[in-house]
Amino acid sequence: MPVRVLVADDDPALRALICDIVRQQGYDPIEAADGKQAIDRFFSGTEPGLVILDVMMPVFDGWDVLKEIRAQSDVPVMMLTALDDEQSEVTGLKHGADDYLAKPFRYAVFVARLHALLRRTNREQNGTQRFGILTIEPEKRRVTVGENEIILSNKEFLLLSLLAQNQSVVFSREKLLNKIWGFDFDGDERTVDTHIKTLRQKLLSCGEMIQTVRGSGYRFEVTP
Question: Looking at the whole model, is its pTM more than 0.85?
Answer without folding.
Answer: no
